[in-house]
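Honest question from a wet-lab person: if I give you the sequences of every part of a complex, can you actually get the arrangement of the whole thing, not just the pieces? Trying it with mine:
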Amino acid sequence: MSPRLFTFSAAHHGPWVVVNQTTVAGAPLPQASHLRIQAGAPASAPGPWSLRGITSNERYVERAEREALVSRQVGLGQAGHTCAALIPIRKSSAWWALTQDERRHVLEEQSQHIRLGMNYLPQIARRLHHCRDLSDNEPFDFLTWFEYAPRDTGLFEELLNALRGSPEWAYVERETDIRLVGG
Amino acid sequence: MSPRLFTFSAAHHGPWVVVNQTTVAGAPLPQASHLRIQAGAPASAPGPWSLRGITSNERYVERAEREALVSRQVGLGQAGHTCAALIPIRKSSAWWALTQDERRHVLEEQSQHIRLGMNYLPQIARRLHHCRDLSDNEPFDFLTWFEYAPRDTGLFEELLNALRGSPEWAYVERETDIRLVGG
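Yes, you can. This is the full assembly:
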């Protein structure tokens, strides 16, 4: 069985070098110089912070959308994908109080979150990790990890700008944007 | 903030006495004599097994359904609700591979899971706990805790029989049914 739980840790050395770390909303994370990604939950964290997330079943994607996604997406670790981003976000209690149909409406019918991501495939590979239900007191709800080629950095900015301008992002109360290059 | 993570532990003493424990599907749990429920994750388990689950946002309920549920449901701990049941279930990988629209279709359009539960309100109080995304290797996906009055035991059996006969239950690969009385 492939692992679903991953730990992202700020570290003093490691395969990913932080080139920029920006607080987009809410409380900042301490600045990191390197990032280490481990499957599972390591016994001790090597640096100032450590974030855990678990991949899970899709919460909004419908059958036709999944077919379209699967036909275009590529996995992590592609040759040439030497740029990466880790974007932890937390959504507000107002988001979590919405019902399933209301959340889907904001996420896709209003914000085109799924469609937007699809427009940037296969260039922008991603893996979504859920944190909110790991425990009672996780600092973020989601960790999204992106990988792409240096020449697609502009595309990645375009995708982030579109998402951050969408109605869904009115529910994001904490967000940090960490850009990295493979070391 | 009210706790969301709960631990259900088999114990030698405790406020809930097990009156019946049946394996419905899959691997059995060791027989328990008493059950203890604690908020959070206790440092050590008092008996042969311990199951953790976390309450979370609803995954299928739509706005109109929530309004109907809220207008009828009652909380746990009602006077006279001296009967209880803990029903841990695990669903198959086929369930988790379905898309959101497919899972909703099986759960409600085919199986009337939400509507069935509503028909037994306010007599049967319940709290659903999610386990699957707590870690990579939880023994169950869901723990549902029910409370009701002794006179409503027949109603509770009726509800369980309806659910177990529904298309959704074809995806349940492990299920234990533990009945208790307040001690």
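Two things worth pointing out. Strands of chain B lie at 5-11, 16-25, 34-39, 50-54, 83-91, 125-130, 142-148, 172-182. Residues 153-164 of chain B form the longest helix (12 residues).
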